[in-house]
Amino acid sequence: MEVVTGALPSLIPKLADLLAGEYNLHKGVKGEIMFLQAELEAMKTALEKLSSDRIDDKQDMMWARDVRELSYDIEDSIDTFMIRGDGRSDPHGFKKFIDRSLGLLTRARIRHRIGTDIRDIKSRVIEVHERRERYKISSVAAHPVKLTSDPRLFSQYTKETELVGIEETRDEIIKILMGRNDNKMVSIVGFGGLGKTTLAKAVYEKLRAQFDCSAFVSVSQNPHEDKLFQDMFYQLAKKNNARINVIDEIKEFLQSKRCIIVLDDIWDISVWNLMTHALPDKNDGYRIITTTRNFNVAQQLGGAYYKLKPLCLQDSKILLHRRIFGNEDTDKCPDQTAEVSDKILKKCAGVPLAIVTIASLLANKEGNIIEWYKVYKSMGTGLENDTAVSNMRKILSLSYYDMPSHLRICLLYLSVFPEDYMINKVRLINMWIAEGFIQYGKHGQSLFDVGESYFNDLLNRSMIQPVHDWYSGIIEECRVHDMVLDLIRSLSNEDNFVAVLNDTGTTSPPNAIRRLSLQNAKEDHSMTWIAKRLQQVRSVLLFASAVPLMLALENFRVTRVLDLHGCNLSRCHNDLKHLGKLYHLRYLGLRGTSIAQLPREIGNLSFIQTLDITRNKITSLPPTVVHLRNLMFLYTDWSTRLPSGIGNMTCLEYLLLRIDNSTMDAIEEMGQLLELRVLRIVFNKWHNNLVEYLRKLQKIKHLYIEVIDGRRSIGGLDAWVAPQHLCRLNTVRSCWFSTLPSWMNRSVLPNLSFLWIAVKELQVKDLEILGRLPALHSLELEVDHVSLGIHGRFVVGAGLFPCLVHCKFWGFIEPVVFQQGAMPRLRELYIDLLFMWEARETTNGDGSLDMGIRNLPLLQDVFIEFRSEVASTEEVERVKATLRRAAEIHPNHPRLTIL
């Protein structure tokens, strides 16, 4: 059993607030609250000690469950009192005087009620305590682990760690697919965690440049077939398709094209039967790779199959040592841990997931041989026969129980999501905050910053898998490996943490439902029994395929998280009219729900922290939304107009503003939002006072400014100085910097990863300054050298832009030249240039010009917009031919587009 601390982490600070707040509590009630505070602190400490390992003693389980459930009930009572008994009100106006006078009577009754509730709660606490004293809870050693955040683990995730030992296997599969034996398809077979997806991805990345189009789609156990083929068409054709007959569209599109397609994680033959109808009849230019856990499925698919074997001992050692020590030299392993590491690897049985998981655990032990042997002795038997899944769960649970309690509860929460679901990082962190899993950090860290550190900790411990956005260099999403999901689902079921209704059935907890995840609607799914257990539900997530199961909102009176992401509420018989009665709500996710407006009663949700109404038909928010003074994250579309008074929402950290002539006051109000971290603004015309208000926002990390009408400002941001923690800056469509700002360098902006700017006059040395930014992943740089007549040779030297993967230069007269060692990770290059006769002096020795793209080793796509005013047609064509030749001889054979 997993022992979670319930609401204790968030409840205990609330009791302190209740004592310190202006609630006019009776002296006796204050004394009882102080007693509760001390008692719950002791219980929390005991639970944390108890939860350092899996607990199987039933008496311990019962006590832990009683404390957890009690903490939820106490928090509900305290929150209800804070909502209804807050003595603060607006003192102005005769009507408000009458309302306030009547309110005094109401609040007096509420204060009396809270006194009664506190005494009842105290009795329950004493009862739980006395029950515990009737037996002795065995002492469980709890040694806090120092978390070592190892950036090597992340950077090696795909290039080294996961690919270790598979080069030979990858080449074997390529030989099967591309040889002369006419094999168009190969299935990779093996059980979960063995590395099938990683191997398929390695083959795919190696071959895709040789084909006209490609797609890598995840099938999963319960695939949404329409979405799967829509995704496939988008990857192949680079455009969306809204038609019903998407399979026919794929077939037509592939008629004259060579393609490679990966179908990852096939569980039965049904998807493949549909896929056969999408393949062209008379085109032999396609290649298919599938992965499956089931050998029988592989046989039914036809074609060749490849049984994936566990890693050999040597490759297992390399993988383990890379994860722990940052090198693959097995001789570098400390002598004192060499023997025990071999024993650990033997028990891991060559399963990459097991090795990576254990390595993450051992990385925190700092080579302590005693700690390593503790891990070894806890691992149980090796992975073999039919016990593979249960033993993998045991291995995964070692890292699970090694995590601090705050990480464990955050990971458990991921069990609310379906299998293979791409979980948005921001959405997840907002939910953690709403549930009270995250408390304010040290040194002024915001709740979101703390939550992001939790997310990164889970990544470093290999408990979740990152979904990379190589374009921006930011991890926007994650997924949970099937085996980790299996582990946390089993723990969640034991602990009544989440009730899940999906295709495989329903986890039916014996007690009240605290969290509900509705993932699929079957005809035999009756919500009657669920509705009776929702009086205390804290989180409700409804997924698109379960919309018919949507319950009336009045069922969710103490709910903190309500997420209806992607659910078409126009098809649902329940509307949002009771939304304003969900007073405990902290998170409201209405993204993509096809709603056109919010009720005015939204202003009653005084606790709400996150409101997401993006991808809807909402053109304006009700004026009452400005009463949401605890709102931190307001996600809206550009077409949504905000009401006057946003300056009252002083907790806001994320804001999107559309400014026109009728909303100019919003700029001034924006200057009052000192907690803003992410600000996105669109103007009709440039606002000259913008810098005055931007200077007040010293916590900004992401800033986007766009002007959609009129000319861009020249020098409009010259007087602004960016905060040191700025990560993303995009002003290219709003204004020109006159010159490169002096603060735009690595000492001031060490975390800047995304930079899209326009600079009127760029000096040669400025490009080197930008190239020294250590975290820069995406750069779009526009200059105005054509109108200024600036002729200068810009060279990107060796060692510059070490992390850049996306680059766009435009407005240069002469082409930018890349030397060997520059931009070692660049994948995508856009260049817009004016080629003039004078540019001939930048050509290489034989009179041709290739800009040095041969020196960019990972280049995949090159787009060049070529304009000439002086050069002859022959000169231009010669340069184009040289560029084509450079792309052809490049080892990666990048796609070259010349406009």
Q: What percent strand?
A: 15-25%
Task: Count the DSSP helices.
Answer: 27
Shape: globular
Largest sheet: 10 strands, parallel
Write the layout of secondary structure elements.
Elements: H1 8-20, H2 27-50, H3 58-85, H4 94-133, H5 151-155, H6 157-161, H7 167-178, E1 185-189, H8 196-207, E2 213-218, H9 225-237, H10 246-253, E3 259-266, H11 270-276, E4 286-292, H12 295-301, E5 304-307, H13 313-325, H14 335-348, H15 352-362, H16 369-378, H17 388-402, H18 405-413, E6 423-424, H19 425-435, H20 447-460, E7 465-469, E8 474-479, H21 482-494, E9 499-502, E10 505-506, E11 515-518, H22 528-531, E12 539-542, E13 561-563, E14 587-589, E15 610-612, E16 633-635, E17 654-659, H23 665-670, E18 678-683, H24 690-694, E19 702-707, E20 713-714, E21 728-730, E22 735-736, E23 754-759, H25 764-771, E24 778-783, H26 785-788, E25 795-796, E26 806-812, E27 817-818, E28 828-835, E29 861-868, H27 873-889, E30 895-898
Parallel strand pairs: 1-4, 1-5, 2-3, 3-4, 9-11, 11-12, 12-13, 13-14, 14-15, 15-16, 17-18, 18-19, 19-21, 20-22, 21-23, 23-24, 24-26, 25-27, 26-28, 28-29, 29-30
Antiparallel strand pairs: 6-8, 7-8, 9-10
Helix pairs in contact: 1-2, 1-3, 2-3, 2-4, 3-4, 7-8, 9-10, 13-14, 13-15, 14-16, 15-17, 17-21, 19-20
Molecular structure report:
The structure is a single chain. 36% of the residues lie in helices and 15% in strands. Among the domains are: 8-133, no CATH class; 166-307, Rossmann fold (3-Layer(aba) Sandwich), CATH 3.40.50.300; 737-899. Helix 1 packs parallel to helix 3 (58-85), helix 2 crosses helix 4 (94-133) and helix 3 packs antiparallel against helix 4. With 899 residues, it is α/β, with parallel strands linked by helices. Keywords: Coiled coil, Leucine-rich repeat, Nucleotide-binding, Plant defense, Repeat. Residues 167-316 form the NB-ARC domain. One of its GO terms (molecular function) is nucleotide binding.
